[in-house]
Here is the input.
Amino acid sequence: MICGGIDLGGTKIEARLFSGPQTETIDLRRIPTPRGSYDELLAGLEEQIAWLEERAGISGLPVGIAAPGVIDPDSGKMFTANLPASGHSIRHSLNARLGRDFPVVNDCMAFALSEARGGAGQGSNSVMGLILGTGVGGGYCVDGAFPHRHGGLAIEIGHVALPASAVARHDLPLWRCGCGRTGCMETAVSGTGLSNIAQHVLGERLSGQDLVERGAEQVFDIWADITGECLLTIQLMLDPDCIVLGGGLSNLPDVVARLEHGLARHALANTRTPKLVRARHGDSSGTRGAALLAKGK
Ligand SMILES: [Zn+2]
Here is the structure.
């Protein structure tokens, strides 16, 4: 069945049309995100919905929207740093303007749903999606659906405090996080975090790619050790069958083996650790998850 997904980002709105048994992308279109006002943002979304319907040749095409930030499950109101949408419900606004329903979901939750349904987490009952990009995002699915959440927080693992033992073991400073707190996991585990570690250990702020080219094993070892403890935190809180890795750092060479090793080093005795895998649907996974949500079971 054909369906559409929209990734509402801070710089672009990407629409993808999906089809086939695996819900694969058959066409896509990107426009810059209008950021002047909420009305302009809605007009950008409407433009992309109209393109999807025209391209599919179906009016009333199921279309889901993945967006960053916190989305209250009851009111639909959003809290987001990079879009002029805080305090608004995009779902309600689009319903009022277009007369039908467009589900709006946090992009990390959409990623988890996509990987649970026809992705790398297929066959696992509970799937944690862990996005290791500029920041760290998390999403969680059980039996291919979202558990109810009180306030619409996804699994905000990036802003859980770093394990004190890991900070002490590697003699790391406590870095300030973009959320305003100090010592969040994101400050050591994300792409930004990897560069923080490089700055601390090598005295140079290097990207993941630079570090790969230099063979900076010491930096990767510290990163994998700390990230392994963060994976243990996920296991202790959620005990998922499978953790699917996405985002730029999931493309690092040997990332799964490094993190399996990092997790095994800290795992509790006589427990089974979750399976770690790379995402199957790559950069399109969040959009695909939103489309699956619109399409239904
Ligand atoms: Zn934080």
